[in-house]
Model the fold of this input.
Amino acid sequence: MATYNNHFTSFAIALILLPTICMATEYIVGDNKGWTINFDYQAWAKGKVFHVGDTLVFNYEAPNHDVYKVNGTAFNDCIAPPDAEKFTSGNDKIELKTAGNKWYLCGKAGHCGTGQKLSIAVSNTSAPEPAPNSAVRGTFFSAYQVLMALIVVLVVVS
Done:
């Protein structure tokens, strides 16, 4: 019986910790400021490590802003090419599917020039843990972990 409990406890601990280890991070671009003009998105991105599988969330008031996924030249020139991928929902979620440099800008007149653009490098390695700024996600996984811990305690005690 002791061996069963030890194996069950080890499995339960792995089950509790697995989501925080394996899940990708969801980054809210600009945190509580969202996607807007007169904000330093390069400063926001500094120190963050983006991985394949992570998601960028662009929150803004549509139709006042939009998001274009562009190349480095369009980014530097603040040009939204007509063939570039465009997002307009106001809550755009863009999964980082490949490694490499990624560039995003607002295509509304004058917005990119006032700083509404983001350049990041995406790593091919998997994310070790969620970012501290992922509050909603952290709350969800904390609740998940508490629930799993409660189940383990109930099973072990009974």
The mean pLDDT is 82.
